[in-house]
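hiii, so i know i said id send this last week but things got crazy w the move. better late than never?? heres the sequnce for the chain we talked about at the cafe, plus the structure i predicted for it. fair warning i was half asleep when i ran it
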Amino acid sequence: MGDVRYEVRKARRTDAEIISGLWDEPLPMLATDLSPAGLFIPTDILLEPGEIVVACFCLPGHREEFQLFGEVAWVAMSRRATDADQLAGMGVRFVKTRPIERLVIRATVRDLPPPLPYKVRSGHFTA
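okay and structure toks below
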């Protein structure tokens, strides 16, 4: 994973719906580690890197829902059930976002701390 990170991830958790060509309806998921460049989706429903998705989510103080195209940039899998310190999920890099969308996300998460490591417990995670 030698990619350069151009935006700092922030510990912002928000409900999201993820749309993929591989399923018929939007799937409700939790999005975390938000930045103007993308987000992390902790899930056991993993897509291949390069898959295109649409991430739909709301931010506090904004009435309109964000509907951003993204590309699965990387995938993290728990190797076995005893790997309680590794969270399964996928990193999504936003593509073709408008400058105003990036500015709004940046302003919303500016004062938040960076994300803390997660622990997986029985399919749920805690910070």
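btw The domain at 14-112 is CATH 2.40.10.220 (Thrombin, subunit H). thought thatd interest u
miss u guys!!
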